[in-house]
Amino acid sequence: MGAPRGRGTAPGQDLPNSMSEYFLGVDGGQSSTTAVIGDASGKICGWGKAGPCNHVAAHEGRAKFLRVMRECLSQAASRAGIDPERPHFRAACLGMSGGPTDKTVLLGELFEAQDVLVTHDAKIALAGATGGEPGVVVIAGTGSIAYGENAQAETARAGGWGYVFGDEGGGFDIVRQAVRAILGEHEGWGPRTALMPALLEATGATDANELLHLFYTAEWPRSRVAALAPVVDSIAEAGDPVALDIMNRAALQLAMLVGTVRRQLWSEGTADPVKVAWIGGVFGSAVLLERFRMLVELEGSVSASPPLHGPALGALLIAAKLAGVTMRPAAS
Question: Is it true that 1-128+309-332 and 132-307 share their CATH fold?
Answer without folding.
Answer: yes
